[in-house]
Fold these 3 entries.
Entry 1:
Amino acid sequence: MPLSSTLTKAYIIDAVAEKSGFRRKKSIDTVEILLELIKQSLASGDDLLFSGFGKFYVKKKKKRRGRNPATGKEMMMRPRKVVTFQCSGILREKINTKYLRNR
């Protein structure tokens, strides 16, 4: 795991290369293809399920009243889509087990 608490694309590429035996270029291509498939799926409005990991949902947000934080002026925010994530029970259990052991 990287020294920081954020998993980066560079770290994932290195881990794919190490664990698969792929050369770095092939690992880069593999990760880029995977990320592009994920982006295309979410951009088209499809949900994305990784069994044992979780599910990414595309949710539609309605038009709503908001406030500009810089000016304080009220404004109408346009409808938009957001991506949300719901982790699987397996991942939730793994996270909580590790958390409870480290307390």
Entry 2:
Amino acid sequence: MGRFRAPVALAGFGMILAFGAAAAPPSPNFSGRYFMQPGFGAPGQRDGSLQTSGGAKSFIETPPLKGKYAEDYAKVLESRKAGRPIGDNAARCLPGFALGAFANPYPVEAIQTKDQIVFLFEGTDRVRRIYTDGRGHPKQLQPAFYGHSIGHWEGDTLVVDTVGFRADTTVADGATHSDRLHAVEHLKLVEGGKALQWDMTFTDPEALSAPFAMRYRLDSDPSIRMMEYACAENNRNVVNDRGETTSPG
């Protein structure tokens, strides 16, 4: 009798291993094509319902800039009123907003693998990578327009940490920042997968007096076909740092 007890016990133990521990739920798949809409209101309107944490100011308010960054932003606003806008990276075919080509009339495609999620922005033909393989930030970062992004899953939400931004991008609407800018994002599918909600919060001890937050909605649209966007081709109205057109067409 004793010879047959061990196999039975082992079989039972195997069943415990197989069924006793709950398998981790699969991560949502963001792969697809989307069209961007700021906020969750009417198209083109900023979302005033965003519940931010840590006392963050939302995008519907003026960025809480301080020191020379507030002074520089005031100059940007004045230059626009004068019809000679400064600090406009888009006019030079360069990335402007620090986390991607948002709030423009062009789609974005997400490609998700087990190691990373890649966002392809049709507008200005930009690429942003978020690594999800457990790596950390490099000890020696090479500053980049979109920084260095690493993400992990918390339930159905992708939490992204980004550092290493170039200082010549913006946190919003032409407002610049320092090289100590830090962004935390929360991305999740909503409305049964019909939309991607993208919340982002910035902190910067040199440029911001408080955290600054914004929310974007990306509507899923499988019918979208991504197209080429060559910003520099036939760009006859390049603007310099003084708001002057250097190559009139």
Entry 3:
Amino acid sequence: MGEGRHPWEREVEAGEPELPQPGERPKNTVNLDDVEAERDGSWKRLGRAAGSELSGLNWGRLDPNGTDDNEHCHSAEEELFVVLEGGGTVFLGGEPHDVRAGSVISRPAGTTVTHTWHAGAEGLAALFYGTREPNDIIWYPRTRDPYFRGVGVTLKVPED
């Protein structure tokens, strides 16, 4: 080892480096705090705000012990979910699976396995990524209504 103090000690003595002020963000770069919220502040369309056309990235939050009433599955869109904060349960085809910060859930297209969320006592925040396939049909089993993404049409199925 060389003479003198350890490099880490010298680095601490030198202090924080001088950095320029951040420049203006390009249009395709957004900050979560700057994206307009929907659904009472619990949903932000990050990908759309950044100009994405072929894939979607959304941020969502469920309040403590909250439930997502949007159970569905996709025919052509693949999805990935990343739990950022808190935890709870993701239901896949009705089967419960505990999740916590750091959990990553993959939802391949065309499996007919629905998914929905229940937050735990701390609530839950996650990123939701999807491929935005125009040929995707989304099935909502509670209402039995299919949504045809490419044409933006939901068919209302009459009750029995």
